[in-house]
Every structure is written in structure tokens, then in C-alpha cells.
Amino acid sequence: MNFVLYKKQNSMKQTRIFLTGATGAVGSQLVQQLTSLNIGFKALVRTPAQAEQLSKLPNAEAIVGDLADLVTFEYALHGIEKAFLLTNSSEQAESLQIGFAEAAHRAGVPHIVKLSQFAAHESSPVRFLRYHARVENRIRELGFRYTFLRPNLYMQGLLAFKEQIKYSGQFFAAVGNARVSLVDVRDIAAIAVAALTEPGHEDQIYDITGPEALSHYELAEILSNVLDKPVSFIDVSPAEMEQALLGAGFPEWQAGGLIEDYAHYARGEAAAVSDAVARITRKNPVSFAQFAQDHRFLL
Predict the structure, then answer these.
(1) What would the pLDDT profile of 182-209 be if each residue is shown by its tens digit?
(2) Disulfide check for 236: which of 1, 80, 240, 243 has CB 3.0–4.6 Å away?
(3) pLDDT tier at 297 (50, 70, 90 boundaries)?
């Protein structure tokens, strides 16, 4: 049985935006930025506790449901003008996202803003890039207006190594000296806000990167300068990285996918720098040095 919490103010206009993935890294930033602009939204969450927390925000409506169970949320898509599509990483992500798109189509939603991935393509050797491309193609087939957001490697992904950086001054990956144009999730969310609230983003694909492409050795140098302590990057083999991921509790499918991701980075296929953040948000993208400064209390 679905459980719905409402939080409305007298000034709240009819909600036209629907969010999935509202409690994750990008989604929480998206919620924060929409709230700061006093823009109302509906958000699908998994638990009553998450719904209660979201419903404390002005102009927010939380729907408890499950993407695998359309009956729990499909009714809430009626009257929506733009839906933001994001799911957590899982083996079912492709089918869940396609199922959501088909539900949104039945409900008459005209526009989907999908969080995809840099270099998404059905023929990619990277499983995550293939699944994103298949979802994108299904959204096109259904006749939606679409905005596909394709961010590169998240700067916040480095926070997975925060304990190692804090206590041993090291982090590792199977990437060699290849440069990657990492992006801050705050900039990804800012472009999502624009796509959800402004005209002119229909049928667009945005590659989203930071302001420069950096090697992981250069990331370590920047961290050393910002944190005022030595930080080293250790290049490891794909097999060593996979064993470390499995040892840290990652399931085999996810560890294998991440190894494919890092092989893609190691081939130099993620070094291009896009102007999308500055062009769309009219603000300079967050640099890695700024990211490190903003998160130094964690590192």
C-alpha cells in the first residue's frame, strides 16, 4: 500500500515537477537547489522516514513507493510536466528506468530529464554506458521531449577513499596517468534545475564536466596542497582494484562495471572538457581544488 505525505503552503503553485533519486548525491543537491528557488516538486522515495524528512521542506510533496511497483506511484505522474529520472546503481537499473519512462508515457508526462553518463553508447564495452544508452533510446522511442544529462566522473566519488586519505594519505585506482574531466555533483544538479525549470532544453544532450581534465596524480598533488599534508595516488592493476572492491563489499556485477569504467578512463576517453556548466548555469564550474577545500573537513 502506498503512503503519501503532503507539505503545502498557501503560496504553492500546482506541482509540475516529479523527482526520482531525490535522496542520493545528485538528487539531494537537486532538492536543495529547487527549494532555495522556492520551486515545488513531488519526489518518489522508498521509506516513510525519507518522506517525512522531505515533507519538512516548503513546497515539497513526498510519495512513498517503489520503481519496481508502478501502482505505488504512477497515479502521481498525472499532471506532471517534467520528470527527473535517476535510480541508484543496481542490476535492475535499466529495467526500472525503462519501466518508469513507460509509466510516465501512460500518464501523459511530456518531458523527461534523465541523468545518464558521459560517453553513453549502446556499443560501448562499459556495461553502465550501454544501459544508459538503451534507456535514452527507449525514451526517444516513446516520443518524449528529453534532456539527457551525461556527467563525467563525480568528484564526490573520491570521498569513498576519505578514510584512506585521512589516515594513510593514499588513494588508488586502475587508471594510470590518464586525465579525466571530473565534475562536482553541485554542478550536475544546477544543470538539472535549469532543464526542469527553464524552456530551451528540449531534445538536448549535455556532456557535463569540470573545468579541466586532471590525472589522479594531479588530484593527489592538489589534495596535498589543500590539506597541507602528503597525499599519494597509487596506480594499481585492474585485478588488484577489483579484488579491493570485492573485499570492501561491492557485489561482483558492480565491481566488474567499475573496472570497465576505469578502463574507459585509462584509455583517455573521458578527458574532454565541456562548457555546459558555464553555458547553462552562467556560473563557472567547481574546480577540483575548490571541491577539496569545501570537503577538507572530511579528508
Answers:
(1) 999 999 999 999 999 999 999 999 999 9
(2) 240
(3) confident
Amino acid identity, position 60: A
Copy the grid coordinates of residue 62: 513526498
CATH number at residue 24: 3.40.50.720
Number of domains composing the chain: 1
Residue span of the structural domain in which 277 resides: 3-151+184-208+273-285
Residue 222 lies in a domain: no
Q: Can you tell me the distance from the alpha carbon of 63 to that of 217, in angstroms, rounded to the nearest whole number?
A: 44
The per-residue pLDDT for range 87-141, each reduced to its tens digit, is: 988 899 999 999 999 999 999 999 999 999 999 999 999 999 999 999 999 999 9
pTM for this predicted structure: 0.94
Tell me if 20 is assigned to some domain: yes
Cβ–Cβ under 8 Å, residues 114 and 147: yes
Report residue 281 as a C-alpha cell.
548555469
| Section 7-11 average pLDDT | 42
Instruction: For residue 156, tell me if it sits in a domain.
Output: no
Is the CB of residue 298 less than 8 Å from the CB of residue 162?
yes
pLDDT in tens, 24-55: 999 999 999 999 999 999 999 999 999 999 99
Determine, yes or no, domain membership for 176: no
175 neighbors 250 (Cβ within 8 angstroms): no
